[in-house]
């Protein structure tokens, strides 16, 4: 048999209908729903008198809008309405909902894996571009718009054009203090924000195999920032071990059979991709973005670029616009950039291991004067687990705010906003203009780098900071 | 959805690359539960200053572009989030066509569901259109049927896959169409039950 990639295998297993000159009709195994991109979809169903075909394959939570302050008091009427609308819709259409006070509530891309809903070989969609996160399990997971949310609710299928396949091979090994976040930021800095357009990425190579599930999620999460439709990693023992015993994973009786099925998914030796690009993990250093898209990044020991060093007019202009917005002078050393906000959270970096990594850096230290620092766990469960380990105490002792779970300052739809002109070291995934607040300036970093910046009041190389890495 | 066949309209040049959905429609406007009314929030932080006053330096605010309905911009247009509020805002503002050298996948897909036509032309042609559109009253004639973009001596063909073309030409309701595949969908579900996939 012709060797195949995992992407081809999952695709072919899910074709409901195929016809020359048309996209394929794909079956969807799991549809995750949240409050922001769903109201208009449910309304569409209602207008046409349609039902949700498989409420049992649909799962909802609230994350984007929710307040993360203690007591979760909602002061924004429009946001409140969006949340009650989701409750009403889930009620009416029979969809399970992890509502704001539910123990399983959290960022949709954190709870899917944590609950074991996310599994190898599944097709997973959500009205959110970071659905790519679930690809870490060897699932084909991609973001969709509201019309497709409605389409999935009504039919449990989607018309999809077969994507191209792109292998991103990561050779070597990440150094001490260099994280999955640095790796994916380095990939995007090297290859650009549209290297993956029209493609599904499979991450392969020794460095990927060595990553934990949580680290793999960080990598796959940012696939969309490389323009890819989805990103995934062939499942292996790490994947199976993670899933065992989770709430919605196959139970003990059927787990071994599931593993046998999942094992058949991994890309066959000799399978061909449309394109392959490579990067060496040994060369990756801790990363800090300096601009207004995720490819505008540098190693912590580098400097902000000088537009004149670029040949293309378009590049020069883009850099000038970005530096202007970011309030940075060309050639500034990254280590000379001072921050006044630090955000540790988001579907990229808000899992237990992320919080641990940050806590290890700041233990026994204080947040720098004038810096406001927030830790927002990705889910209620992560919060509880962190508290059981005493991480909350480490953070609050150091002067961090310890919050309830949600998207929070990643996109600042609730009250967690960086003020205009404020500068934030953020563990999230987008540094677009205004993302964390109108006029706010975002630098994307790993949790350890964010924690170190909180203490130093500026960017420092976490490898030379504190006692952890020495 | 209104069928889309021929279209003639005024061109507005947005001379930027990687225009992301956070710029097209900032998040503070995503809390609404309706589909309409997002046009006034389009490019909000570029169009308005902190006090809600129009920024004179942002071209879309200039008198000559008030009737614009075709937007031309740089590569990777619509990158970022999956929010369909982005095409809703563009279309509510009055745009019918977006021309760029490349689009982000989800945004590109979302356009068709909302009667908005995204057209890919090469970098050089887009650059030429951007320059031409800086002078007042520059119109383009778009034929979806013939897949052409035209203005006097400028005439280019564009590619579009037949499925998307069909959808726009007929203003199709995709869900109704998919529901005609009910048998195949049920059949797939049965098979999945027995094989575990
Ligand atoms: S944490 Fe940020 S990127 Fe992730 S789903 Fe929430 S808003 Fe989107």
Automatic annotation (TrEMBL), chain A:
Query: What's its EC?
Result: 4.2.1.33
Q: Which reaction does it catalyse?
A: citrate = D-threo-isocitrate; (2R,3S)-3-isopropylmalate = (2S)-2-isopropylmalate
Gene Ontology biological-process entries: L-leucine biosynthetic process
Q: Which residues bind [4Fe-4S] cluster?
A: 347, 407, 410
Name any cofactors this protein relies on.
[4Fe-4S] cluster
Give the co-factor note. Binds 1 [4Fe-4S] cluster per subunit.
Q: Which SUPFAM superfamilies match?
A: Aconitase iron-sulfur domain
Q: Is this entry keyworded Iron?
A: yes
A GO molecular function annotation here is:
4 iron, 4 sulfur cluster binding
Q: In which pathway does it act?
A: Amino-acid biosynthesis; L-leucine biosynthesis; L-leucine from 3-methyl-2-oxobutanoate: step 2/4
Q: Does the keyword ATP-binding apply?
A: no
Q: Name one Pfam family in it.
A: Aconitase
Instruction: Write out the entry's keywords from A to Z.
Output: 4Fe-4S, Amino-acid biosynthesis, Branched-chain amino acid biosynthesis, Iron, Iron-sulfur, Leucine biosynthesis, Lyase, Metal-binding
Q: Which residues form the Aconitase/3-isopropylmalate dehydratase large subunit alpha/beta/alpha domain?
A: 8-457
Its quaternary organisation is: Heterodimer of LeuC and LeuD.
Q: Which family does it belong to?
A: Belongs to the aconitase/IPM isomerase family. LeuC type 1 subfamily.
As for what it does, the entry says: Catalyzes the isomerization between 2-isopropylmalate and 3-isopropylmalate, via the formation of 2-isopropylmaleate.
| Family matches, as NCBIfam families | leuC, PRK05478.1, PRK12466.1
The name this protein goes by in its record = 3-isopropylmalate dehydratase large subunit
- What organism is listed for this UniProt entry? Scopulibacillus darangshiensis
TrEMBL record, chain B:
* GO terms of molecular function: 3-isopropylmalate dehydratase activity
Q: Which pathway does this polypeptide act in? A: Amino-acid biosynthesis; L-leucine biosynthesis; L-leucine from 3-methyl-2-oxobutanoate: step 2/4
Its biological function?
Catalyzes the isomerization between 2-isopropylmalate and 3-isopropylmalate, via the formation of 2-isopropylmaleate.
Instruction: Supply the gene name.
Output: leuD
Q: Where is the Aconitase A/isopropylmalate dehydratase small subunit swivel domain?
A: 1-123
- Which family does the entry's similarity section mention? Belongs to the LeuD family. LeuD type 1 subfamily.
Q: How does this chain assemble?
A: Heterodimer of LeuC and LeuD.
Which UniProt key words apply to this protein? Amino-acid biosynthesis, Branched-chain amino acid biosynthesis, Leucine biosynthesis, Lyase
What EC designation does it have?
A: 4.2.1.33
Q: Which NCBIfam families match?
A: leuD (TIGR00171), PRK01641.1 (NF002458)
Question: Which species does this protein come from?
Answer: Scopulibacillus darangshiensis
| Matches recorded under SUPFAM superfamilies | LeuD/IlvD-like
What processes does the entry annotate via GO biological process terms? L-leucine biosynthetic process
EC class (word): lyase
Q: Which GO terms describe its cellular component?
A: 3-isopropylmalate dehydratase complex
Q: What is this protein called?
A: 3-isopropylmalate dehydratase small subunit
